[in-house]
Amino acid sequence: MSVTGYIVRRLRLPIARSHTGIARVLRNATVPPCKQGNICFRRFAHSPADEANFSSIVDNPPDLVRAGKRHGPGLIILVPDSALFKALIPITAFALGTWQVLRLGWKTELIAKFEDRLIKPPLPLPPRIDPEAIKDFDYRKIYTTGRLCHEQEMLIGPRMHDGNDGFLVVTPLERQVGGSTVLVNRGWIPRKKKIQADRREGLPLGQVTVEGLLREPWKKNLFTPDNRPELGEFYFPDVQQMAELTGSEPVWIEETMDPDLLKAYDREAKGIPIGRPAEVNLRNNHTQYIFTWSAGSLYSFYSESLLPKLHAGSGRTKAGNIG
To answer: Where are the beta strands (DSSP E) in 176-279?
Structure first.
């Protein structure tokens, strides 16, 4: 059915034989009120878009005008093709490279200071220790005697050793009469030796002498979860927290041993903690950082400043040859 026929039937109009007749009938017809299911014809109001000189805001964006109020500095948006953006890249890279030079000097002096302390003979640990003075004895070899409180043992993990998963064993050392209790990081054990019943040989009884390094408390990074001592879960050696839990002084000692592969394998099999070697294990990668940032600064300066000029000069030369 055509559209015209549909309109005529819905409006109950007389049948016209021509288009002229249909138009005349539509003009003279009285449209019934709208009901559900009926087609309603409404006269729409005049729209500005009907004017011949109408201009859309899409075709002509509005002009920005000053409202008379001062705004804050806001956010500076750098366009990648702007001169300021291009200038900031080599300057920022050069500044970071210079900062790494300063960091390299600081880290080199720090490692040299710690290595100088390592070659000195071990000191007996005083009965009482001022926690504020530990930073002046960081990486200093010490020895002390006492009883390991295995009932207060804490396992920090997971920790990897030669590709194997395990834990660090931290045990309070109760020293002789007049001495304070300190925390001893005895070393690493495999995960399968987590339960004390499976490593009886790694739980010495009576008086023992511990030799190790006096260390400053560790600093927690943003990615390490918080310890949950109520569940016996420790992810980070929080010296202050562990000292409060065990009634010890916030003194951290890392037990050391000579690096011996066969001895380490034997200790791992028996569940005896594998101590760390007496050496400085601070990373010093600032030299490669200096090279990276300096190379980035030179490359960005060349690509943003010199290379366009070379291309422009080459273009003028070709144009002169053609002329």
So the answer is: 181-190, 207-215, 252-255
CA proximity to 193, closest of 152, 242, 157, 239: 157
DSSP, residue by residue, 78-138? PPTTSHHHHHHHHHHHHHHHHHHHHHHHHHHHHHHHHHHHHTSPPEEPPSS--GGGGGGGT
pLDDT-derived band at 83 (thresholds 50, 70, 90) equals low
Q: Does the N-terminal peptide bond of residue 259 adopt cis geometry, omega within 30 degrees of 0?
A: no
Q: How far, rounded to the nearest angstrom, does the alpha carbon of residue 102 sit from its chain's CA centroid?
A: 24
Cα distances from 122 to residues 38, 51, 258, in angstroms, run 103, 98, 15
pLDDT higher at 232 or 212: 212
d(Cα 87, Cα 97) in Å, to the nearest integer? 16
Residue 277 CA to residue 296 CA, distance in Å, equals: 38
pLDDT in tens, 181-225: 999 999 999 999 999 999 999 999 999 999 999 999 888 888 889
Q: Which residues pair with 10 in a beta bridge?
A: none
Report the 3 state secondary structure along 298-323. Answer: HHHHHHHHHHHHHHHHHHHHHHHHHC
Distance in angstroms (rounded) separating the CA atoms of residues 267 and 282: 26
Q: What is the pLDDT of residue 65?
A: 55
What is the C-alpha to C-alpha distance for residues 173 and 182, in angstroms, rounded to an integer?
5
Global confidence as pTM: 0.64
Alpha-carbon torsion, ordered 9, 15, 20, 22, to 10 deg: -20
Question: Could you give the CA distance from residue 45 to residue 58 in angstroms, rounded to a whole number?
Answer: 23
The CA distances from residue 255 to 19, 117, 152, 183, in Å, are: 107, 16, 17, 10
